[in-house]
Amino acid sequence: MGGRKIIDTIHSVLAEGGTTLSLEFFPAKTEEGMGNLLARIEDMVARLQPTFVTLTWRSAFADESLWLKIGGIVQREFSVDVLLHLTCHLPRADLVRVLQNARDAGIRNILALRGDPPIGEDRWQPVPGGFSNAVELVHLIRELHGDHFCIAVAGYPEVHTECWNSPDLPPSEQSFAQDLTFLKDKVDAGADLVITQFFYDVPKYISFHDKCREIGIPAHIPILPGYLPIQNYASFRKFTSWCKTSVPNTIDKALEKVKDEDEQVKALGVQEALRACRQLLDHGHRTLHFYTLNLESTVTSVVEGLGLLPKANLRELSWQRHKASGNRVRAKGGPAEEVRPIFWANRQTSYVSRTNDWDEFPNGRWGDSRSPAYGELSHYYLEFKRPKVDRQMLWGIPTKHEDVYNVFVRFLDGKVGSLPWCEQAPAPETSAISSNLKFLNANGYLTINSQPAVDGRPSTDPEVGWGGPGGIVYQKAYVEFFCSPDKLKVLMEEMDRHPNLSYHAVNVKGQEYTNTRSARVNAVTWGVFPGREIVQPTVVDSVSFGAWKDEAFELWLTQWATAYQEGSLSRMLIHEIHDTFYLVNIVDENYGGDKTAIAETEDAVRLEHKSEGNDVTRLENTVNRHLDIFSLFKCVITRGFTSDQLFHFASETQRESEHLYAVVKELKAINHDTANENRMLRTSLMQTQQEIADIKSELKRLRIQRGLDLIKPTTGFLHSGQHAAAGAITPLVASNTICKNA
């Protein structure tokens, strides 16, 4: 069926004194995730009955067929009007085609956007035959389709980031005025309504709204406030930092107190959303627009808390009318995996509990590939808003593989602030394996994600703990890296001899090697908590790895190669790595660790080569033993060493061991001194306690004596005719009494 123009619905609802509700969703990363996204939209539409939903279209997409198919399904099957995003990233001829196809699909509503610059570019450059801004796109829609489409445009309560005078300074009054002029130009070109960028400072939105009216944007043009509920601490910080969104101090302080507890962060997000929305409603702004991030429970809680949840789901859905048609996306309560893949994030400090709606805690790469919210949320929304840095200053100008290896080593040393795959410094838990990781990277195994084995540590452990107090956590050792085909071949030959190691390798062309079943899902982190079932927050699985592969290889080109001029040696080198290297993950199933493996390998590499003609020390004594991941790498890497390299490695290993021994010895000495001090303190304490006891005893004796003395006059201390013994002392009280009686 054909849709309705949402501007007509909004005007109708507002005229009746009601409040409009709209929801934004973005494309899922996998086919199964897309199916579940449709199910999520279905559920939220049925329960919340929004006025309309918006479906985003990333600027890099070139084929509108899937976009229109999803929009058609949502509009036709779920009986809700759809607002589809359209950007200026295509030539005019392609935009003409897309608009006609949208009209043919029954779509009546378009959000006209310019779009973001290509990844790696600082400023927007129109494609050949394309448009420079959204004003031109609005003109095109009106020129070709008249009043058929309702056109929405974007507004920026805190100014579009490209209008800022400086990345580090707030926008000037001139910037505000210029941005408002751009918005009015879009309205004058034919826009019907405005949807704003998200904000948390409500007074700034109210001021923006008032200024829009002052410059001549008429009252019949609704300005919908866009709100992004706080779902997760890390993503909130990234969104607000990259989009330059101001955050009130009250929110900042409250978040810092609960930032490591996902459930408390989400609860705070609901609380703050309710506060902001009530403030908006109190000021007469009755058109609420939510950026859902494809997540359900927070937005639902907010709508319910505002008293806007429909008392009955009166919307007639086509799948309810025609159950026999089989149009429904999935059955209610269908199974969903409640564990999360490891690929999409370097370690987060806080993990999540196992709940029915676990994906309401979006921890980036820690998401089920079947989830509608699967993937790095920032990759979809924020990739183009990533803070601009001097990438040549950051990563240098590499001309050979070893230069690239050194960048990764320097990242682990804290001398390089970030990598395309790692936006933050290594997590604290990495310190336990830091020297091993540096050894791998120095030898061409470029690690982008890792975790050490953990065998029953408290859930409050500052380095590896998660999930709140009272639990015990476990994890398998894991490492993910890029390497050349030659290095992978040698590594696989050795891994095939160690059944505790599972691996999956894939290149940019999709050629892959693995020693695991394709459908296997491998839990690599889990915990035991009182009164709860086993919690398994992270997994490794082939579907997730396949989806992550595309993004991981893309970053070589979009983030690193584009730092150098076309045709330069550095750019060609990064392209060569992108084209030939493999992305590999390895899991050590023996999470408890083979206690002798490391010692055996360390001993083996210390063996002197038998003669000058024998460059390599064969580590045959490790065959068929359960090597841990890093012992495996040492075995493989040192096998290719020359005598000098092997001697240097053994010397470095010995120095590290001696350093560790010295540290342990120093700690033991400190412990010994502390123990002596504790013994002295205990002795002193015992003496003090004895003195206190003696004093108490003496005080007790004196109180008793005083009591006896007070009662002696009434009992007659010296009887009549009785004389005091020689040398006897007459008590003062008695003496006074005698004197008074004299």
TrEMBL record:
UniProt xrefs under NCBIfam families: fadh2_euk
Coiled coil: 678-705
Protein name: MTHFR SAM-binding regulatory domain-containing protein
GO CC terms: cytosol
Gene3D superfamilies the UniProt entry points to: 3.20.20.220
Keyword Isomerase among record annotations: no
Pathway per the UniProt entry: One-carbon metabolism; tetrahydrofolate interconversion
Cofactor needs: FAD
Family label: Belongs to the methylenetetrahydrofolate reductase family.
GO molecular function: FAD binding; methylenetetrahydrofolate reductase [NAD(P)H] activity
Gene Ontology annotations of biological process type: methionine biosynthetic process; tetrahydrofolate interconversion
Record carries keyword Flavoprotein: yes
Keywords, alphabetical: Coiled coil, FAD, Flavoprotein, Oxidoreductase
Domain MTHFR SAM-binding regulatory: 336-596
